[in-house]
Amino acid sequence: MRCLCLLPTGILIFLIVGVLVGLFVHLPASSILTTLGSEEIAFALRLTLFTSGAATLIAVLLGVPAGHFLARQQFKGKIVVDTLIDLPMTMTPLVAGVGLLFLLGSDPVRQTLDRFGIQLLFTPWGAILAQVLIVTPVMTRTARAAFAAIDTRYEQAAQTLGLKPVQVFLRVSLPMARSVLLSGVVLCWARAVGEFGATLMVAGATRFRTETLPIAVFLNISSGELGIALICAWLLIMTGFLVLLIMRWIGTPFSDEPTVMKAER
Amino acid sequence: MREFKWSLMIVGVVLGGVLFFNPSAIAAQLHIFAGAGLRQPVDQLVKAFETQTGHRVFIDYGGAGQLLARIEAAGTGDLFIPGSLFYIQKLQTDGKVQTYRPIVQHTPVIGVNAKQAGRIKTFKDMAQPGIRLAMGDPKAMAFGRTAMTICENSGMKDAILKNVTVYGATIKQLALYVSQGVVDAAIIGRTDAFQNKETITMVSIPVEYFQAEVIAAAVLTSAADSELAGQLAEHLSSDTAVAVFNQFGFLPLDEL
Questions:
Q1: pLDDT (tens place) for every residue of chain A, 265 residues total
Q2: Residue A105: closest CA among chain B residues belongs to which residue?
Q3: For A171, A258, B24, B154, which has the most beta carbons within 10 A of its beta carbon?
Q4: A182, A188, A193, A191: which is closest to A250 by C-alpha?
Q5: With an 8 Å Cβ cutoff, is A1 touching chain B?
Q6: Does residue B25 sit at the A interface (CB-CB below 8 Å)?
Q7: Is A2 on the interface with B (CB under 8 A)?
Q8: How far apart are CA A216 and CA A222, in angstroms?
């Protein structure tokens, strides 16, 4: 069995390392510092951190209660709602972005937003909205699985001891699902950091306004500045690497040992 | 030992599959890199070429700059058809182009959302306060560069750029913004306005502000069969091909 598993593992590692080496050897060593210090890249990094952070926060605020609701409540048409929430995960982000563009560009929505002075299209807020659409289903799905795995008897016991439903949620369900939820947060954030298609359609590719790191990669590849694009790409890769390391450090389900086993010790 | 045999069998099946589907084992094949905005006429012409000759042609569509980066990085492909000669000349200086054949012109126009047609009737109107414009990124796309030159030559660059609410990465993205009415106008290709007649009104740009871009088919030095690639370039630049391009709103070169 060991031999049978070794080959696919080797192929996988070869592929990943091959891609990283390919991206690394083409890095323009002489201009790394200049590029990293450039105002455009600093802006793209700041904007990426801001939009992905905000999108993750919104995804948590929407996804965790939604996940809890879907895990605990039974109602007619639940299967449809469940599938609908998952749908954006199967959509190409570019298509999701075009859909969002159609929605925000339609006369009634546009006029309503204008009345309140809200500008979403072609602004960083539009980038956040696009990322929220893409990452919230991930958070909802993770939260649903986390809450579904908790034995409901703990919640029932807490309720019989006099806690109100909100208190049960905050003091029992949430702490018990903490590690899985945390992994969901990290996954959402990592997904938001790399989001490109939907952001491009809704926010555009305006340098120093809506240029996130993935858009900077695309713009620089399109303008033939492969070196700058690769440096941006490495910033994204390092971010992802850091995130995965943090996940292992905090002991989420992505760590080597199952959380349940750790709890039992 | 038994597991080792299994591993060998899997490797054998994978290798067999790769060899079986190896493109070079099937027939003569050509690989084209073409500007995303040229998709409709190029698709139609390539299909006719395949039917006539029996050869397979694979077309890779994308932004001209992006395609250029790919050709330079990968060093493969037979033909390159960007929306501007600028990109062919760039490859030519690197010695990566054998020959090229001009096909049609890529004329810029102002695409105005049909509902805003009353507000933007001439080029000057783009500089009016309150007009929302989309513009192509001048570094990333051919028409972004053209649009910037037009603005500079008009002497109204600052006023026009003040009205730009979004920069796009492809010409189709700009056309979508205009046709959806999320911006009032954008400098796009005549063909994009032509193909969205119901939602986009075309306003001409004074000819002294620009030089129309030329669409051409370049045979790359990396072409596996230069003669065959040349044959396809000839097919794509024939009178019949110009007529097909014309159906999609591209103007012949003699109208330059």
A1: 677 788 889 999 999 999 999 889 888 888 888 888 888 889 999 999 999 999 999 999 999 999 999 999 999 999 999 999 999 988 899 899 999 999 998 888 988 998 898 889 999 999 999 999 999 999 999 999 999 999 999 999 999 999 998 899 999 999 999 989 988 998 899 899 999 999 999 999 888 899 999 999 888 887 777 888 899 999 989 888 887 787 777 665 555 544 444 444 3
A2: B182
A3: B154
A4: A182
A5: yes
A6: no
A7: yes
A8: 10
Q: Which residues of A touch B168 (CB under 8 A)?
A: 204-205
Query: Could you give all domains of chain A from N- to C-terminal order, each with its CATH number?
Result: 37-212 (1.10.3720.10)
> CA B101, CA B38: separation in Å to the nearest integer?
16
Measure in Å the smallest separation between the Cα of A31 and chain B Cα atoms: 18
Please tell me if residue A98 touches chain B, with a CB cutoff of 8 Å.
yes
**ipTM computed for the complex:** 0.73
Report the distance separating Cα A232 and Cα A33, nearest Å: 12
Q: b/e map of A40-77 (b: 16 or more CB within 10 Å)?
A: bbebbbebbeebbebbbebbbebbbebbbbbbbeeeee
Q: Which of A111, A223, A226 to mutate to test the interface with B (most CBs of B within 10 A)?
A: A223
Which class would CATH give B108-209? alpha beta
CB atoms B69 and A222 under 8 Å: yes
Identity of the residue in A101, A201, A206 whose CB atom sits nearest the CB atom of B167: A206
* Straight-line distance from the first to the last Cα atom of chain B, in angstroms, rounded to the nearest whole number: 73
A-chain residue closest to B173, CA distance: A201
Domains B2-105+215-255 and B108-209 share a fold: yes
Amino acid found at B119: R
* Domain locations in chain B as residue ranges: 2-105+215-255, 108-209
Closest CB from B90, B140, B181 relative to A222: B140
